[in-house]
Design a protein that fits this description.
The chain has two domains: about 240 residues, Aminohydrolase, N-terminal nucleophile (Ntn) domain (Glutamine Phosphoribosylpyrophosphate, subunit 1, domain 1, 4-Layer Sandwich), CATH 3.60.20; about 170 residues, Rossmann fold, CATH 3.40.50.2020. Helix 5 packs across helix 6, helix 9 crosses helix 10 and helix 11 packs across helix 13. Strand 9 and strand 10 form a beta hairpin. The strands form five sheets. A seven-stranded antiparallel sheet has the order 3-2-4-1-10-9-11, covered by helices on one side. A six-stranded antiparallel sheet has the order 5-6-7-8-12-13. A four-stranded parallel sheet has the order 16-19-20-21, sandwiched between helices. The chain is globular. It contains 18 helices and 21 strands. The protein has about 475 residues and is of the alpha+beta class. The longest helix is centred in the middle third of the chain and has 15 residues. The chain is about 30% helix and about 25% strand. It binds adenosine monophosphate (AMP).
């Protein structure tokens, strides 16, 4: 299968997103708490955010482009988001005018009352479902795959809302962690494979849902448990909680890249400290790919925990040879290559006094297009490093993600274009090595990757996608031959 990305609509708008979600029910200041929770999830999406609240009678919404602190910049804003229930969303938005209409949570007035949805993940048959719905007369307001869920609920034939919700999700393939609000309850749900994370906590009488535990910490909630893969949890406004497992049991495949890069290191995921896992990847990397050097230097911030692990295992001193400006966001989110190139330079600078004349091991979490590594290796050389060895705390990223992590199309992935030797030459490193897939699995607490039934979704490394990719298959399918009479 040639996996070019079909999630581009006519105006060049991307349907897939990278997101964080948060919801709370039973709190006095639900919207303000949601803003705080979203702030802790800001690393999952930095271009747009929104909150929808419900006061027992009406829904209220505020959405905007920008960081949480910009869109929810004063306390007065929360007076306009009243009620004991609220949910919110942060995302990497798309460029162009249609960005605004895609900001979540999405809301619709359905036959059974108002319904809002905040979605983290990506639906891999969204285009297929959308074509069907549009052919039946549905009018879409956004280009977001999430809106498909709203239309499927609206057109389901089941009388009860929860049954409609489950009925809709049975048609959906791909990754989804959802926080929804109805006029009676909050519904939190994870797809049957549990690809994207979702946790539950409590603060006083209130129940909180969030993409990562760090958001629970920040709002002062105690972690209760993860939402299980395929679980639907309903919390009514009176506090009653019900759990359902409507999809049957499947072997879970949570995303391993959450551990490598995406989640905050102070989160706990799948019972593991993300920070400790990253350090353990560094240890594995040092065992698998040792090198004689004077210093271990992380590419900040994402390479720091793995570099600590690499340094501890190898005995080579850990030093900050690259200083990062904290006033530049993630370089990756810039859609234009030119903007990303400039940002790498604004973001990182060499600590020349330290690096000069030294043989260094650079550690980063991943190489995607190779832009960052190429610039940083050059930066180290310009600062006088004698040798620059690059060690990467994930296997080569050879495949696009279709489940909600924003990786570029396959032909732009360095590892899809060349082998490790070619990549080393491309980034101009004296040597280059990636942790093996089994090394990564050991770091997350497994003995090895179970090839017949992998414990994680690692499709970006292995190409083993755990769901159908209907939109992709349909795009790649040969056109129907014309009938000539
Ligand atoms: P690149 O410059 O394209 O090779 O990107 C690699 C850098 O981007 C690494 O330093 C990673 O920390 C970071 N990165 C990798 N994957 C992602 C992602 N999905 N979203 C944002 N940043 C990423």
């Amino acid at each position: 299968m040639n996996l070019t990305n079909p999630y581009l609509d006519a105006d060049g708008d991307k349907l897939r997103e990278e997101c964080g979600i948060f919801g709370v029910i039973g709190a006095k200041d639900a919207a303000a708490m949601t803003a705080l929770g979203l702030h802790a999830l800001q690393h999952r999406g930095q271009e747009a955010c929104g909150i929808v609240s419900f006061d027992g009678k009406d829904f209220f919404a505020r959405r905007g482009l920008g960081h949480v602190a910009q869109v929810f910049s004063s306390n007065d804003i929360f007076d306009e988001l009243p009620g004991p229930m609220a949910s919110g969303h942060v995302r990497y938005s798309t460029t162009g005018g249609s960005g605004l209409r895609n900001i979540q949570p999405l809301h619709a007035d359905l036959a059974r009352g108002g319904f809002s949805v905040a979605h983290n993940g990506n639906i891999s048959n969204a285009l297929h479902l959308k074509h069907d719905l549009v052919n039946k007369g549905a009018i879409f307001q956004s280009t977001s795959d999430t809106e498909v869920i709203l239309h499927l609920i609206a057109t389901s034939r089941f009388p009860k809302l929860l049954d409609r919700f489950v009925d809709a999700l049975r048609l959906v393939e791909g990754a989804y962690s959802l926080i929804c609000q109805t006029t009676k309850r909050m519904i939190a749900c994870r797809d049957p494979l549990g690809i994207r994370p979702l946790v539950m906590g409590r603060i006083g009488e209130a129940v909180v849902f969030a993409s990562e535990t760090v958001a629970l910490d920040v709002v002062g909630a105690t972690f209760e448990r993860e939402i299980e893969p395929g679980e639907v949890v309903e919390v009514r406004l009176d506090g009653r909680l019900t759990s359902h497992h409507p999809f049957g049991k499947t072997n879970p495949r949570p995303c391993v890249f959450e551990h490598v890069y995406f989640s905050r290191p102070d989160s706990v995921m799948g019972g593991q400290s993300v920070y400790e896992v990253r350090k353990a990847i560094g240890v594995e990397l040092a065992k698998e790919s040792p090198v004689e050097a004077d210093l271990v230097i992380p590419v900040p911030d994402s390479g720091v925990p793995a570099a600590i692990g690499y340094a501890q295992q190898s005995g080579i001193p850990f030093e900050l040879g690259i200083i990062r400006s904290h006033y530049v966001g993630r370089t990756f989110i810039q859609p234009e290559d030119g903007a990303r190139h400039a940002d790498v330079k604004r973001k990182h600078n060499a600590n020349r006094a330290l690096v000069e004349g030294k043989r260094i091991v650079l550690i980063d979490d991943s190489i995607v297009r190779g832009t960052t590594s190429m610039k940083i290796v050059q930066m180290m050389r310009d600062a006088g490093a004698a040798e620059v060895h690059m060690r990467v705390a994930s296997p080569p990223t050879e495949n696009s993600c279709f489940y909600g992590v924003d990786t570029p199309e396959r032909h732009k992935l360095l590892a899809a274009r060349m082998n490790v030797q070619g990549m080393a030459e491309f980034i101009h490193a004296d040597s280059l090595a990636f942790v093996s897939i089994d090394g990564l699995y050991r770091a997350v607490g497994e003995k090895e990757r179970n090839a017949s039934c992998p414990q994680f979704c690692d499709a970006c490394f292995s190409g083993d996608y755990p769901t159908r990719l209907t939109d992709m298959e349909e795009r790649e399918a040969p056109a129907e031959p014309l009938l000539v009479s």
